[in-house]
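--- STAGE predict ---
source: upstream dedup step, 1 unique chain passed
mode: sequence only
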Amino acid sequence: MKRFAALCMITIFTINSFGQVSVGVDVYNRYVWRGTDFSNTASIQPSLEYSIAGFTFGAWGAWAINGAAGGNENDLFVSTQLGPVAVTFTDYFFPEYTGTDAILDLESHIFEASAGIELGPVSTLIALNVSGDDDNSAYLEFNYKVLTIGLGNGVYSTDGNFAPVNIGISGEKDNLSVAYIINPNQETSFLVVGMSF
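--- STAGE serialize ---
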């Protein structure tokens, strides 16, 4: 037991000496991502990141407070900056805890490659599912200050064709954020409020 404790202390000291660890948690009245609502309930979203040598390795999750199916997500990602472009590779995993979604079963995962660039008040993102999605769905997002416009195909749209799926306006004050989001493709809208800790 003493050896295990010592090993843990050495590991923690090494991680903190050569990189930076950050943690956070957000709480939202509902989890709306790229114009789609997941689970129709409040969501707790923790995050853990470790940055070293220009790379960030992280874990991010979303947990429906009522345990609703589709409301649980547990992702891993790695990102880096290539000049003005931020490149990210994400492993999306949606555990249902039914015995059919084992973390080592790669068919339970969706892998996405994305690239984004920010130029002053303007930013863009392009993301492509490269594995785990037969449609290889793509998502494009354009942001100008508080305005967001997102288009997607495959899993993002009702018929699989490219369509506007995420049009919104957002604002922040201290650790509070509010967004009004319209998904024209689903003919629905959301008013989302969240707090960051």
